[in-house]
Amino acid sequence: MNNEQAPLAATFFILFAGAFVLSYLGKRKHSEALTLVEWTIFLPFFYWKAGGDVMYLLILFVFSGYLLWIGHREEWSSKVNAGTLLFLFSTFVGYIQVAWGFLPKSLFFLGGGLLLFVLNAFLQRQRHKRLRDEGKGGSQV
Predict the structure, then answer these.
(1) What is the distance between the alpha carbons of residues 72 and 139, in angstroms, rounded to a whole number?
(2) In tens digits, what is the pLDDT along the chain, a chain of 141 residues?
(3) Burial level of 64, CB count in 10 A (0-12/13-18/19+)?
(4) What is the pTM of this model?
């Protein structure tokens, strides 16, 4: 990092730390300290010259898993949908970044299609399982 970017980086880190502390105090007041994981998506990996984009992809994978976990735990479908969409987006971006450079284009698109097919089958199985479980729970009441 050169000297021209240093004040900007220091200002960013001070503002980031201040916002994090305020968020932590508010979340602790409402007993929601676990949701501080959401701050991982704001970590400044763009200051890394090499590997920053890979770190953002890993954070997106972890954050999408976190959203899915919280959504299933709280039975909040909008969080489950957001986690699923974020997972699909991060998988799509990661696949393009990794596979575009070294695969022949026909294999790239064939692999992408197979990945989508497998993902669709998995999501359909989960949906049928959830509908079956909801049907069993509704008939017992």
Answers:
(1) 22
(2) 555 555 577 777 787 788 878 877 877 777 765 566 676 676 666 666 776 677 777 888 888 888 888 887 877 888 888 888 888 888 888 778 777 777 787 887 888 788 778 878 887 887 788 788 877 765 443
(3) buried
(4) 0.56
